[in-house]
Amino acid sequence: MRRPLETQLEHQDRLADRKDCPVWLVLMILFSCGQNNYGELCLGHCNSTSKLEHVPFFSAKGIRDIAGGNEVLAVVMNDGAIFTCGLNKSGQCGNGTFEERVIIATPVRALSGITINMVAAANG
């Protein structure tokens, strides 16, 4: 999903209007917007937003890859660690629990020590 149309923050309203890409990586800073029923925007809450919001958790870390699925977000860091947030009723965040909502980026500990290069997410 790393394909922002603009790299200037003053264009955030136009970027937020796009329906096909709810997560934006702009100047290596992660922003997200849209439906957030299960915390899938990694903002620390479950409120939906129509404006791009900065995701502060990832600011000091280098992001290698991002994938958004249906109500889940996965982020691979430059060091190969992977973090997820969002719907987790069936364990889809990979954090070892079935807690329904994961609202902050949580490491996938089962993959610690393994360098992840890419991530994919899907609906279902």
TrEMBL record:
Signal peptide from the UniProt entry: none
InterPro entries listed in its UniProt record: RCC1/BLIP-II, Reg_chr_condens
Pfam families associated with the record: RCC1
UniProt protein name: Regulator of chromosome condensation (RCC1)-like protein
The species this protein was found in: Phytophthora palmivora
